[in-house]
Write a structure and sequence with these properties.
0% strand
Length: 185
């Protein structure tokens, strides 16, 4: 979508034009769902979070600064709504501090036979606190101090949750690789 068309849709959304809202939603559905799927436990939760995100987009669209990329603004809203969803849902049951976490060795790289959907499904199986810490740190590039501030936890808890996420993902990948090897015989 071109910049002029995008800005035309945004102007329409500011005027609460339902046609413009539908077009903007359709145009950025895949992008937004991709972000929400990383944080959600399943597709239904991701859709719920994404719709909450679009509600926030449409109610605050006048605050969008046209000098900045729209996708960056939209992505930040989707991440924040995802975090807020889990913060409210769980009153987050965070795990132990980093000092109590198991050491994870750096192993072999991920099997190249696993595709994006396989890895996404594995991330979705992680406990909520681990999944959120993993996404914020490994995918979105936030520091443990930033994550701690966003989630009202200590940086050590963020590190612990990341460690646990990595350990569980490593175990799931090893299990998937083992199953693939057995299927090839």
């Amino acid at each position: 979508m071109g910049d002029e068309k995008l800005h035309q849709l945004i102007r329409g959304c500011i005027k609460q034009d339902m046609t413009c809202r539908k077009e903007l939603y359709k145009a950025f559905y895949g992008f937004s769902m991709g972000i929400c799927l990383r944080y959600a436990g399943n597709r239904d939760e991701a859709a719920e979070v994404m719709n909450q995100g679009f509600f926030k987009v449409f109610t605050h669209i006048e605050s969008y600064d046209r000098r900045l990329p729209f996708k960056d603004w939209l992505g930040k809203i989707m991440r924040n709504v995802s975090i807020d969803f889990y913060r409210a849902k769980l009153k987050i049951a965070y795990s132990e501090d980093i000092e109590k976490a198991d050491y994870i060795s750096e192993g072999a790289p991920v099997d190249q036979n696993l595709n994006y959907n396989d890895l996404l499904a594995m991330v979705q199986l992680l406990p909520d606190a681990c999944r959120i810490a993993f996404n914020l740190f490994a995918i979105d590039g936030y520091s443990h101090d930033e994550i701690a501030s966003m989630l009202n936890i200590s940086p050590g808890t963020s590190k612990s949750n990341l460690q646990q996420a990595r350990l569980r993902l490593k175990q799931m990948i090893a299990k998937a690789e083992h199953c693939q090897l057995q299927l090839s015989y």
